[in-house]
Amino acid sequence: MTTPPFPAPTTAELAVVSAQLGRPARGVVGIAARCACGNPTVVATTPRLPDGTPFPTFYYLTHPAATAAMSTLEATQVMPDLAALLDDEHVAAAYLAAHEAYLSDRAQFGEVPEIDGISAGGMPTRVKCLHALAGHALAAGPGVNPIGDEALARSSWSPSTCRCDDPGAAVREPEASTA
After folding, report:
1. What is the pTM of this model?
2. Per-domain residue ranges for the chain?
3. Which of 4, 32, 76, 93 sits at a 20 to 30 Å CA gap from 107?
4. What is the structure's pLDDT at 43?
């Protein structure tokens, strides 16, 4: 888990993220959370993509097993249960604080008027996208985003268990040339 500033992503990290997404990675400013093997799990993305598109999802969940687990949760209709947790004033206050922390982290990479005040996942008053909330929870660490934490706890995926296709590819030393 980490919050800004981030070291610039390496070529190996971007290659892993691109493989995870099945398309070239765009606007990645850092690796915000990692798998137990060192591969990226969450990337931090610039709030305006290189093509000019506003992109509010600063913490973007990329790990295929994690994204599949969040998709499964969403498909099993847990959203109303998670939204009901916001009826507790302490949970609602923590979720609002998570929203504000998210906006603060993203603002370090530029202000984008089109997404001003918009964080991700429905924060601060709704539960809309578990992928975004889990990404934030993984990046910020336990106790920051209560709904993201709960989604991770209910999921079949764990950040402590590697389920990568190529474990450690992002942190592996390049092999020396024998030319």
Report:
1. 0.94
2. 11-154
3. 93
4. 98
